Amino acid sequence: SRAGFTGPENLSRVNLVLVKHYSQTLYTLYIRSVYHNLSKEAEIKRINKELANIRSKFKGDKALDGYSKKKYVCKLLFIFLLGHDIDFGHMEAVNLLSSNKYTEKQIGYLFISVLVNSNSELIRLINNAIKNDLSSRNPTFMCLALHCIANVGSREMAEAFAGEIPRILVAGDTMDSVKQSAALCLLRLYKASPDLVLMGEWTSRVVHLLNDQHMGVVTAAISLITCLSSKNPDEFKTCVSLAVSRLSRIVSSASTDLQDYTYYFVPAPWLSCKLLRLLQCYPPPEDGAVKGRLVECLETILNKAQEPPKSKKVQHSNAKNAILFEAISLIIHYDSEPNLLVRACNQLGQFLQHRETNLRYLALESMCTLASSEFSHEAVKTHIETVINALKTERDVSVRQRAADLLYAMCDRSNAKQIVAEMLSYLETADYSIREEMVLKVAILAEKYAVDYSWYVDTILNLIRIAGDYVSEEVWYRVIQIVINRDDVQGYAAKTVFEALQAPACHENMVKVGGYILGEFGNLIAGDPRSSPLVQFNLLHSKFHLCSVPTRALLLSAYIKFINLFPETKATIQEVLRSDSQIRNSDVELQQRAVEYLKLSSIASTDVLATVLEEMPPFPERESSILAKLKKKKGPGAVSVELEDGKERGELNGGADRGGEAAIAASNSTPSPSSDLLGLRSAAPVGGPAPSAGSLLVDVFSEAGSAPPSAASEDPAPPLFVCKNNGVLFENQLLQIGIKSEYRQNLGRMYLFYGNKTSVQFVSFTTTVSCPGELQSHILKCIPSLTHTKPVEPLVEGGAQVQQVINIECLTDFVDAPLLNIKFRYGGALQNITLKLPVTINKFFQPTEMAAADFFQRWKQLSQPQQEAQKIFKASHGMDTEVLKAKLLGLGTALLENVDPNPENYVCAGVIQTKIQQVGCLLRLEPNAQAQVAPPPPPTHTHTHTHLCAHALDSHTASVCPSLCGSHCITHCTHLHVITRYCIYVKDPHRVGSSKSH
Amino acid sequence: MIKAILIFNNHGKPRLSKFYEHYSEDTEQQIIRETFHLVSKRDENVCNFLEGGMLIGGSENELIYRHYATLYFVFCVDSSESELGILDLIQVFVETLDKCFENVCELDLIFHVDKVHNILAEMVMGGMVLETNMNEIITQVDAQNKMEKSEAGIAGAPARAVSAVKNMNLPEMPRNINIGDISIKVPNLPSFK
């Protein structure tokens, strides 16, 4: 190719010309950027000087000519490109838009498309200029304007032009170049604001652009049509037959027919690719003739791949193969033509050994999708040797990574052992960047296709040996879960870890697995004198001092288990526990374990010891957290093969034969947390410290079966929600509860969203709402109802969110809030959380607007002391009028402006709606900068039926007020004085009368 | 969709950046640096595709690049684009630049920021391909140049003079003069290494 950048002589030639041509500044910048002989400070200094110069030119009295304007704007663009902020020139650029000169207009648009973002205030001005240019009928100006819309793509622009652009696109007299721009401009607006682009009447004319004479128009239109089709396939389905016939004309044409659109002897490669992509939005055509024509095209494309190349240039083969790969994608997408699928697979097989690295890369990538088709899975498998070879010998890490992906995708029961072995051996030399992913893949394949669990154990231990640093917690937790759940492999596992620990240097993860497994199953190999209890203990303890604190803690637990398994080791182990390095360890966790284990081993009887340190019960079956981790790493698409494969799920969970049974057992039994040495049941969030470590020892010594609930009930109804209806009600490490509520009159509806923050499912998830005390007598009725008419799913998947709706009716006034109780099992541990639902009397306020005279008349009417509640409190933070107003509105009352003669005061009015009565309330808030204000009169209680309401209101003014103060609204020297006056009506034709309370 | 088009030189100095999605100015600079870091450490003769950096969307996006002498041309695209198609597009872009600038070199990109943007705008709009036919693109660019010249008037005289010199037909001079061994003194310039 002639395409240049061909070395120093070329550079210097241009140098000589340009030096005369351009100002010193750019030249210096260039020198600096090429030769690095200016320090960063010097560059900044130089640029600031230049910026100041340009600014003065822009602001100067002398009008700049077009050439200078252009020069300075170009300089600004270059300075921006180097990473410096440009904070001026925008207005000058906008002014250039209205120029009649192309040069000035163009440079203005360029500046705007590079430097103006969608939320700029200038958009209105820019829109005006665009509007003028669009209606100018000058194609160059129209294109500039359309480009600008596509570059900025803001909502205001969509609002202004979404109606106009489709008209330009389909108008008969629009120039081709403008049509092209209009198509892509519309696409951009559609992507940004789909609601504003209404295709309706234009649909068919847009689809027919596929038939346009001008290939450029088709090229631009097809992107638009593809996007619209993928969103509304039905409306655009006529594009299928048009696309097929267009494709057919291109594919079957002699390469010279398309003249300018022939690229290195390949007819319209870009457009062909796009047509094939468009067809991938749809299933195979139903019309036999269309389908026949398409199959013919695909066959022609596959045939052409076998023909000798028309040029030796790489561009020729690139263009040809671009079409071929898209055709293969379409064949895979249809997944219905076995003949084509096998041909595609063979073609990719050829590419696997092609000398072009790009083709090998793409072939591996395509084969990954091909491997999931049942027609071609077997055919893909025949290439296993080539792929393994690629994994071993490719120089390029991107290609090796694709090879690893393909091996993972083509793995099944028949070749799992070979593939896992190859991946393991590749791991020894793999690039650091992909090791972690490889480890996860090996772990998943080993588990998924394990027929023989000793192979599985070997594989994972090898994994730890080879790439210990990249073995995450999930992986070694998982091997332990599986060993514990399958008694046929326990003896083998014990033997293997024992052997693995013999190695002079072994990875800490190996020590963890070893410690855990020997602690549980060391007895299974203790018969052999070479692995007698004491030998096992000494082996483990020889690693102890090299390990980190969590591992040491785990080993201590293994030791206490040894005392139970092998009474003969008791003296030795107690000796170790008693040593200063343990019992006086500076780490609290280690010290506590040493002390308590020592005590336990000395005072507990053998029976108690045997109960406390009993073998771990089986783990509840669940989806492998490794898979979840890989999904997170690779995005949802990457592991879809497993998810679609329903039959394999049981095995993933550690043995299909026992899956169901064990799941039931797990949800019924309450395994004692005390035997959970690792905290596996409350599986640790990745990277965090072992969560149950703290409670572990408490559990060990607590009475069997009375383990305290791990989450204490959270008491307070957060004052936050008095003035707010939405937000996060509760959050801990496991669970987040979001709330949205709405109230109308005396009715309310509350949506609760329970989000599982972990990657593990919650089992037996139940929620109950109760109304304590007086609420129970139907003062407040809460009927939990569920959106999908079924009760809350007892299972909440990891990362999932479930929704619950609670309907609330306020019968009469109330004080206490209803309680929400949530129970579930996380791992094995029961979680029990009780919360107050933020239902307060003020939620049933209906705002009332009234004029000043009206307000004060009513205010005076409610003059009896029983009808008034006063509260004075000190402000703790600065006062912000707006915040204060928002709070008062949040309370539910109407905020009456210009009512109180004192502008400092706030007055509000509202009616509390309950089923049997209404309570009218007038509220006045008097911020008082002078310190002392009289305290409120002491409340006097009466026992009328209205007492409750008054009490409620009082308690609520009380609860509102702290929330007012507590939420940073009032200055430190200000006192707030809140007076509420109210009257109560029983909902009855007759007004029973206003009444009093205190 | 094309998310971004970046051109930088062998030292990582940006020569053109065009983002088709909104990022803050800081993020844009970081993306350029990250991309340079990813691309520049790769050997010659490896494949032209790699997963995108974290800042621009990680493995959902792909970087497709070509290295020409002193410059890297990098297109960051999502999965809806054909890799080889984009590779062709880069080639079309470079060939077009080469025709418009007559043996394009890095300096042309610096001193003609506006032209490079114009040429690119004739090919790609809002992240989608507008035109792939080089002749069509050049026709448009030429038309713009003509308009520019006709408008330039007196103010454009120096530029016209220079281009006249540049285009002067001097048959006795070879097209590429090798001046490596001639030391040229330009008195009014700071010396450079």
TrEMBL record, chain A:
<keyword id="KW-0813">Transport</keyword>
<feature type="region of interest" description="Disordered">
    <location>
        <begin position="638"/>
        <end position="683"/>
    </location>
</feature>
<dbReference type="InterPro" id="IPR013041">
    <property type="entry name" value="Clathrin_app_Ig-like_sf"/>
</dbReference>
<dbReference type="GO" id="GO:0030122">
    <property type="term" value="C:AP-2 adaptor complex"/>
</dbReference>
<dbReference type="GO" id="GO:0006886">
    <property type="term" value="P:intracellular protein transport"/>
</dbReference>
<keyword id="KW-0254">Endocytosis</keyword>
<feature type="binding site">
    <location>
        <position position="57"/>
    </location>
    <ligand>
        <name>a 1,2-diacyl-sn-glycero-3-phospho-(1D-myo-inositol-3,4,5-trisphosphate)</name>
    </ligand>
</feature>
<keyword id="KW-0472">Membrane</keyword>
<dbReference type="InterPro" id="IPR011989">
    <property type="entry name" value="ARM-like"/>
</dbReference>
<dbReference type="InterPro" id="IPR002553">
    <property type="entry name" value="Clathrin/coatomer_adapt-like_N"/>
</dbReference>
<protein>
    <recommendedName>
        <fullName>AP-2 complex subunit alpha</fullName>
    </recommendedName>
</protein>
<dbReference type="GO" id="GO:0035615">
    <property type="term" value="F:clathrin adaptor activity"/>
</dbReference>
<comment type="function">
    <text>Component of the adaptor protein complex 2 (AP-2). Adaptor protein complexes function in protein transport via transport vesicles in different membrane traffic pathways. Adaptor protein complexes are vesicle coat components and appear to be involved in cargo selection and vesicle formation. AP-2 is involved in clathrin-dependent endocytosis in which cargo proteins are incorporated into vesicles surrounded by clathrin (clathrin-coated vesicles, CCVs) which are destined for fusion with the early endosome.</text>
</comment>
<dbReference type="InterPro" id="IPR016024">
    <property type="entry name" value="ARM-type_fold"/>
</dbReference>
<dbReference type="Pfam" id="PF02883">
    <property type="entry name" value="Alpha_adaptinC2"/>
</dbReference>
<comment type="subunit">
    <text>Adaptor protein complex 2 (AP-2) is a heterotetramer composed of two large adaptins (alpha-type subunit AP2A1 or AP2A2 and beta-type subunit AP2B1), a medium adaptin (mu-type subunit AP2M1) and a small adaptin (sigma-type subunit AP2S1).</text>
</comment>
<dbReference type="InterPro" id="IPR050840">
    <property type="entry name" value="Adaptor_Complx_Large_Subunit"/>
</dbReference>
<comment type="similarity">
    <text>Belongs to the adaptor complexes large subunit family.</text>
</comment>
<dbReference type="InterPro" id="IPR009028">
    <property type="entry name" value="Coatomer/calthrin_app_sub_C"/>
</dbReference>
<keyword id="KW-0653">Protein transport</keyword>
<feature type="binding site">
    <location>
        <begin position="71"/>
        <end position="75"/>
    </location>
    <ligand>
        <name>a 1,2-diacyl-sn-glycero-3-phospho-(1D-myo-inositol-3,4,5-trisphosphate)</name>
    </ligand>
</feature>
<dbReference type="Pfam" id="PF01602">
    <property type="entry name" value="Adaptin_N"/>
</dbReference>
Automatic annotation (TrEMBL), chain B:
<comment type="function">
    <text>Part of the AP-3 complex, an adaptor-related complex which is not clathrin-associated. The complex is associated with the Golgi region as well as more peripheral structures. It facilitates the budding of vesicles from the Golgi membrane and may be directly involved in trafficking to lysosomes. In concert with the BLOC-1 complex, AP-3 is required to target cargos into vesicles assembled at cell bodies for delivery into neurites and nerve terminals.</text>
</comment>
<keyword id="KW-0968">Cytoplasmic vesicle</keyword>
<dbReference type="InterPro" id="IPR016635">
    <property type="entry name" value="AP_complex_ssu"/>
</dbReference>
<dbReference type="GO" id="GO:0030123">
    <property type="term" value="C:AP-3 adaptor complex"/>
</dbReference>
<keyword id="KW-0333">Golgi apparatus</keyword>
<comment type="similarity">
    <text>Belongs to the adaptor complexes small subunit family.</text>
</comment>
<dbReference type="GO" id="GO:0006886">
    <property type="term" value="P:intracellular protein transport"/>
</dbReference>
<dbReference type="InterPro" id="IPR011012">
    <property type="entry name" value="Longin-like_dom_sf"/>
</dbReference>
<keyword id="KW-0472">Membrane</keyword>
<dbReference type="InterPro" id="IPR027155">
    <property type="entry name" value="APS3"/>
</dbReference>
<dbReference type="GO" id="GO:0006896">
    <property type="term" value="P:Golgi to vacuole transport"/>
</dbReference>
<dbReference type="InterPro" id="IPR000804">
    <property type="entry name" value="Clathrin_sm-chain_CS"/>
</dbReference>
<keyword id="KW-0813">Transport</keyword>
<dbReference type="InterPro" id="IPR022775">
    <property type="entry name" value="AP_mu_sigma_su"/>
</dbReference>
<keyword id="KW-0653">Protein transport</keyword>
<protein>
    <submittedName>
        <fullName>AP-3 complex subunit sigma-1</fullName>
    </submittedName>
</protein>
<feature type="domain" description="AP complex mu/sigma subunit">
    <location>
        <begin position="1"/>
        <end position="147"/>
    </location>
</feature>
<dbReference type="Pfam" id="PF01217">
    <property type="entry name" value="Clat_adaptor_s"/>
</dbReference>
<dbReference type="GO" id="GO:0030659">
    <property type="term" value="C:cytoplasmic vesicle membrane"/>
</dbReference>
<dbReference type="GO" id="GO:0005794">
    <property type="term" value="C:Golgi apparatus"/>
</dbReference>
